[in-house]
Write a structure and sequence with these properties.
Elements (H helix, E strand, L loop, with lengths): L6 H15 L20 H9 L8 H8 L13 E2 L2 E2 L6 E10 L2 E4 L11 E4 L4 E5 L4 E10 L2 E4 L4 E2 L7 H11 L5 E6 L2 E7 L5 E8 L7 E3 L9 E7 L2 E7 L10 E10 L5 E2 L16 E3 L8 E3 L2 E11 L6 E8 L26 H9 L5 E6 L5 E6 L3 H10 L3 E5 L3 H15 L10 E5 L3 E6 L4 H8 L8 E5 L2 E3 L1
Parallel strand pairs: 15-27, 18-21, 23-24, 26-27
Antiparallel strand pairs: 1-2, 3-4, 3-5, 3-12, 5-6, 6-7, 7-8, 7-9, 8-10, 10-11, 11-12, 13-14, 14-15, 16-17, 16-20, 16-28, 19-20, 20-21, 22-23, 25-26
Helix pairs in contact: 1-3, 2-4
């Protein structure tokens, strides 16, 4: 583009065919939803459906664009928008990754808040299309320059699936941007700032299809000793790990364990896969070379055991780890794992106990998503489908908090049964793991150490890695 061209004039020329066609008859093909308003986007979503998801490009757009760029302020080639070059290409396929609601960053999760993976593709012929994860977005025209995106009418066709909140958010931003969407590019990430019907703005984030997903979100502040509970995503698998590192390493090198240590004659073994509470106790795990058990252990029938906090080299070599330091068991005031108590459960009365709730869950059949106990002791019942009638039932006797998940307990157990024999072949685990159903309708695998190599190995065992969560006990150290 010539540096002397007026960007507003260019936009006027490019968008005039669209303006000549407006207002057009809205088209919404076979799309019928029954959804309750959700937070800030609820009213906008209902209005968007009623308006048939048509975006009208008005004169306000030209007033706005006429002030961005131009001969005196820089051409689109050198215009900076939000710290990123305004001429970065928007062409390509983009995955809807997350959005912001208030102070909370919410990740798009297939099976939790999205029926499938939402995406948009911007093509070189000036059209875009994509999927909400549940419904197809049919091709429509667009213009992009100087950090602003304008698009014409778009149609959505219904698929045989249940739309999620991610679809609601994506269509709300697409459907309510009469002055265009402000786009901020940063490498392979893209943020959209679009006004909804309530006049508020909030960013939604995309990544290029071939770019890796974000891996780390620290969900809890670090303790005084610098240990924080972190949540990472590696190849779709959620990884929960206590760590003093800012990122998840490819391979852990130093790990701290609070564990039982048993020496039955072959050397002190770290009990990283559970303990058989016999007398004396029994377990299996790597031998901790250099660990002195005098002064803190007890002995019976030739077996010595005790509880210890040890820092060791990792991974084991020939079944052994080198002890770097040891101390009494360290007690940290950290909620672990994070996020087990959903926000809607904070004021729930759960006085009835697990018995009646277990009976009720068993009666739900395929709608039963499983039970778990949150960090504060709250009993949480997970259900597939609308949780409202179940919440009403639980409220009658104060049984449990009820949350919606995308997988039934039966489905979780099928995944569990499939993956158990495969985990034995993962060298990073060395047979040390525990497994069961867990929060979010996921299969939860408890492992001694979680690094990127371990997560990638586990992710490769299942068709849908988002159904898996790794929960580590060992603290990653620098």
């Amino acid at each position: 583009m010539n540096d002397d061209l007026d960007i507003a004039a260019v936009f006027n020329e490019g968008l005039s065919p669209l303006l000549e066609e407006l207002p057009g008859a809205p088209v919404w093909e076979s799309l019928q939803f029954e959804m309750q308003p959700t937070h800030r986007v609820g009213n906008a979503w209902i209005a968007a459906v009623a308006a048939a998801a048509v975006v009208l490009v008005g004169l306000g757009s030209f007033f706005l664009l006429g002030r961005v760029g131009g001969p005196d302020e820089g051409s689109p080639e050198d215009t900076e928008v939000g710290g990123a070059a305004g001429n970065v290409s928007i062409e390509g396929r983009w995955i809807f990754e997350s959005w912001e609601e208030g102070d909370e960053r919410i990740t798009v999760e297939v099976g939790v808040n999205a029926a499938g993976e939402p995406w948009l593709e911007f093509r070189s012929d000036g059209t875009f299309g994509g999927s909400t994860g549940c419904n197809d977005i049919l091709p429509a025209g667009y213009e992009y320059a100087a950090g602003f995106l304008m698009h014409g009418d778009f149609n959505v066709t219904a698929a045989d699936c249940e739309p999620g909140t991610a679809e609601e958010v994506l269509l709300t931003v697409l459907s309510n941007t009469p002055d265009g969407v402000e786009v901020i590019m940063d490498g392979d990430r893209m943020e959209w700032f679009g006004s909804n019907l309530e006049g508020a703005t909030y960013p939604i984030t995309f990544r290029r299809d071939d770019a890796p997903p974000p891996e780390t979100t620290t969900t809890m502040a670090a303790a005084e000793d610098g240990v924080a509970i972190q949540v990472h995503e590696v190849d779709g698998v959620e990884v929960v790990v206590p760590s003093q590192l800012s990122e998840l390493p490819d391979h852990a090198t130093r790990v701290e364990f609070n564990t039982t240590v048993i020496d039955s004659g072959a050397g002190p073994e770290l009990c990283l896969g559970g303990v058989d509470e016999s007398l004396p106790p029994q377990c299996s795990g790597p031998v901790a070379t250099g660990l002195d058990m005098d002064g803190w252990s007890q002995q019976a029938n030739g077996v010595r055991w005790g509880e210890r906090s040890v820092v060791v080299s990792w991974p084991p070599v020939d079944g052994s780890v080198e002890v770097i330091s040891q101390s009494e068991i360290l007690v940290r005031d950290l909620l672990y794992p994070p996020g087990e108590l959903p926000e809607e459960c904070e004021d729930t009365e759960t006085d009835a106990g697990a018995g009646p709730v277990n009976e009720y869950a068993a009666s739900l059949g395929g709608a039963n998503g499983g039970l778990y106990v949150a960090n504060d002791g709250t009993l949480v019942l997970q259900v597939v489908g609308d949780p409202t009638p179940h919440r009403e039932m639980m409220a009658t006797f104060g049984g449990a908090c009820v949350v919606e998940v995308g997988r039934s307990e039966a489905e979780q157990r099928r995944i569990q049964d499939t993956i158990v024999p495969l985990l034995a072949e993962v060298p990073e685990l060395a047979g040390n793991y525990g497994i069961g159903t867990g929060p979010g309708g996921r299969v939860e695998i408890h492992v001694p150490v979680a690094d990127r190599a371990t997560a990638q190995a586990v992710a490769g065992l299942v068709d849908d890695p988002t159904a898996i969560r790794l929960v580590a006990s060992g603290v990653l150290l620098p």
